[in-house]
Design goal:
The chain is α/β, with parallel strands linked by helices. The chain has 17 helices and 19 strands. Bound molecules: S-adenosylmethionine and iron/sulfur cluster.
């Protein structure tokens, strides 16, 4: 595959459409979905769908705010506020877990942010300890944390490991100090290789590195240099995020416009060149921007067709359960609904202190949407769907499934002519080239798409 070939394909299929990180996407959530609706879904989750429990805890604090940041976070000020927030999160967790069947097992806990390691690890331990006291933790549970390496040294890693963490994701963004300086970000406290080696020293923990392409002062060559340096460090996983510039939502991003941002064409080249470099240097591509070493569980799940996805990223079908999320802006993903908490720190703490939940918006899926969500997930993650197998797994009739997806082989002629899919009455198989535009292919089996036109940005 040549860079130009992939670029022209991406440009050809650069049409407006959902990203399918959830189904339906978060812009369909509405405020008439309330805390009471969420609680109803929590209770019915005991008898519906996957019984494993995934927990997400949002830690909305950072010592310094990066100008590019698109996350829900706040500058760390008073320590009492952190303690108040953690108390509220634990209270919210205890309340929800009291409605969950205690025979279910927690297979996954994810701490995201903000920067969970910007606060004392004892706060995080308090949360993990309350999980252990309220629910059954599977002995192989993945306990993951997103860290900023600017605040991470060996003793922090020891403390996080003794609190129970076994998956570390480090936000590198760029190794170049000049890029970090213009985006108001501190450099890693220790060399990243030292951190990664130390985390993996005991063989019990794995490491992911996050990068962003599309920041000021980055070039295709400088981004590739980042990928070369990363491949030498050999993290288990790596993500290259496309910089999302939304200054109308995140005002600080305007500051980056003064230095200037790489054009869409340059960004596309960074994506494609990064993809080529990493796949030629020991990594398996998982989707368009996630990479894993071939012995990592994500790469194995992709190979076995059991890859899954939620708001926290890709995961495996064995470990992922229904997601119960706690804290600011956190999104729960249950069998029949999504529920998102408020993004305002004061409102969140006041609600929880006042014995209320803090759901601000959400969505209830009907039975048809639950099936479509699973089918789109299967195609987006595993790059194929066999209608007979899928129908049997979901205890439905194959013809009903195809009618539901409005499957019509003639809708795939263009994709087939471009070598992006192999399609038959039995199913759809996405080719390696097709994986770059899998979102467009998924749109062809999304029966609710036309009701929502005009709500989406373009693919690139
Ligand atoms: C919660 S942060 C990770 C932990 C920590 N706060 C840090 O920055 O190192 C999650 C990731 O989101 C990505 N991110 C943040 N703002 C973004 C934006 N505007 N566009 C694309 N990716 C972004 C970054 O790569 C970051 O590592
Ligand atoms: S450290 Fe992470 S969460 Fe905090 S401002 Fe920077 S990118 Fe955002």
């Amino acid at each position: 595959m040549h860079t130009e070939e992939i670029k022209s394909l991406l440009l050809k299929y650069n049409q407006a459409g959902p990203r399918y990180t959830s189904y339906p996407p978060a812009n369909h959530f509405t405020t008439d979905f309330t805390s009471a609706d969420y609680l109803k879904s929590v209770k019915s989750s005991d008898s519906n769908g996957n019984q494993s429990i995934s927990l997400y805890f949002h830690i909305p604090f950072c010592s310094r705010i990066c100008f590019f940041c698109g996350c829900t976070t706040n500058k760390l000020t008073a320590e009492e506020l952190v303690q108040q927030y953690i108390n509220a999160v634990i209270k919210e967790f205890r309340y929800i877990s009291s409605s969950i069947d205690k025979r279910r097992e927690v297979t996954q806990i994810h701490f995201g942010g903000g920067t969970p390691n910007a606060i004392d690890s004892l706060y995080l331990k308090q949360i993990i300890d309350s999980v252990k006291s309220e629910l059954k933790l599977n002995s192989n549970a993945e306990i993951a944390i997103e860290c900023n390496p600017a605040y991470l040294d060996k003793s922090d890693i020891d403390a996080l490991k003794s609190a129970g963490f076994n998956r570390f994701s480090l936000g590198i963004q760029d190794f170049n100090p000049e890029v970090l300086k213009v985006v108001n970000r501190e450099q890693s406290k220790l060399p990243v290789k030292t951190l990664v080696d130390y985390i993996r020293d005991d063989g019990a923990a794995s490491v992911n590195l996050d990068f962003i392409y599309g920041l000021p002062k980055q070039t295709v060559e400088s981004f590739l240099e980042n990928m070369r340096m990363a491949a030498e460090i050999k993290p288990d996983r790596l993500v290259t995020f496309s910089y999302a510039h939304v200054p109308w939502v995140k005002k600080a991003q305007h500051i980056l416009e003064k230095t200037g941002l790489p054009s869409a064409d340059i960004k596309l080249e960074m994506l494609v060149e990064g993809y080529r470099y990493l796949t030629n240097n020991g990594y398996t591509a998982v989707g368009m921007d996630h990479y894993a070493r071939p012995d990592d569980s994500l790469a194995i799940a992709l190979e076995e067709g059991t890859l899954h996805r939620n708001f926290q990223g890709y995961c495996t079908r064995e470990t992922t359960g229904q997601v119960f999320a706690f804290g600011l802006s956190a999104i729960s993903q249950l069998w029949d609904s999504y529920a998102q908490n408020t993004k305002d720190l004061r409102t969140y703490i006041e609600n929880i202190d006042g014995n209320k939940l803090a759901v601000e918006r959400g969505y209830r899926l009907n039975n048809e949407q639950i099936i479509v969500r699973a089918a789109i997930n299967q195609l987006m993650c595993n790059m194929n769907i066999n209608f007979n197998t899928f129908a049997a797994e979901n205890s439905i009739d194959t013809d009903y499934l195809k009618r539901l997806l409005r499957f019509d082989i003639s809708n795939f002629t263009d994709f087939e002519n471009d070598g992006l899919v192999k399609v038959s009455e039995d199913g759809i198989e996405v080719t390696r080239m097709g994986s770059f535009v899998v979102r467009n292919i998924a749109m062809a089996i999304d029966p609710f798409l036309e009701q929502r036109e005009g709500m989406y940005s373009k693919t690139i």
